[in-house]
Amino acid sequence: MVISASKQRIFQTVQMDQSRKLQFLYSRAGFGITPAAFMNPISMTEAYENLFPKSPASEIIVVDDQEWADNKPAVMKNMQADEKKEMKKEFNKRTEDLNLQWLQTMMKTAYPLQEKIALFWHGHFATHIENPYYDQQLLNIFRNKGLGNFGDLLHAVSKSPAMLQYLNNQQNKKSHPNENFAREVMELFTLGRGNYTEDDIKESARAFTGWGVDENGNFKSREKQHDFDQKTFLGKTGNFDGDDILNIILDNRHTAEFISRKVYKYFVSDEEADEIRVKEMAKLFYDSHLNITVLLKSVFESEWFYQDKLVGEKVKSPIELLIGYQKAVAMRFDDPKMLIKIQKILGQYLFNPPNVAGWAGGRNWIDSSSLMVRMRLPEALYGSDDLNLTPKEPGNDNSQTGGREEMIEAEQKRQSKFKLGKVQPEWSAYLDFWKQTPQDKLPRALANYLLNVPVSDKLLNDIVASADKTTNETYLKTLTMRLMELPEYQLI
Question: What pTM does this model have?
């Protein structure tokens, strides 16, 4: 992969100073750092304290209770076909509104970790149901319980209408158990493969019979559909219901290890997890009664988290990329829905994960097509350039013979032009800030700020040579865009 080779070519071992350490923390625990925060770093003690919110998150609402009451499925059953069509169209619009409101919250929040962990849980507990009311319920669970106790989070998610509908537990009845929900709870959400049996799936599915959603969109345990007979699950026997099954799972040490491993790969490294670290994290997590804040603090406040070898070990997700651009230089879209389009093109469309396993993440974010789009985005966003935004066709792996240049040329011919529409960068504050930096020090200062991975003097000199030096302002703008167009910008 081009991006991996690039990192190997230019990476140098450097001692992290205060600014770089803070930049690394903000990139991993949030969505990046502003120029002012980078150049005037607070103490790490203060940074750790500021990560965690002091109060619950304000809920994001795009469909209020009254609107839902007027248009819930029970009401829609009596609608004419054209009325249903219009209502579904409106719900699709509201899902987009929810997407954009969450993006804005990620950008403006004083507690980016609160939104970053919600994004983690959104991929971990993946659903795709095209119902904005259920989607907003689940999102607000992630945002308000995502840093608390994992048991509380798991119980709330498991009883959410979005999850019960997506994994077919509405159809899980005593007379005909449906195993979808029970299987994914263990395989993807808690224990991980190899730590349960097919019999455990069957028995737990029986315990979850009757769990469903009422006509108002609330959790409902339907006693007439529940199997009250004895079950045996993970070596324990009793007249278990769904809550009992979840509690048995939470008490199993494999759950603490499974979640710790996913947290490691999300916040620390896309590469194979360091099993020694994972086991240390899992023990602490289990001993804390699955306190997510305790787990994350143990990572962010540890010395090993800031090792040079971990710098650049993660590829920015599309959402991290989009928010990171705006952390550096804010922008306004004449049509905010262009942010939806970019998400689709880059492969991370909020509330539309590809499957129940969520987004694969890591190096899977990058292929020859998406890397080329990513490297041209800064010019399109900040320079009003045209951009090829046609996604790679399914099944097209671009495995042509020949070199990288031929592959890129073939991809460019295949793609059609697509204009972003009007994007209005708000350069003024950014320009005013960097004008304080002497011109001879500006390229390295910008590189240190924009790139988590250090770049060589030769590469930086090449960028300087190609920059537009017509005015100080154009020089600063083009330096910024050229640095953002490097493969190294994709790494954190």
Answer: 0.91
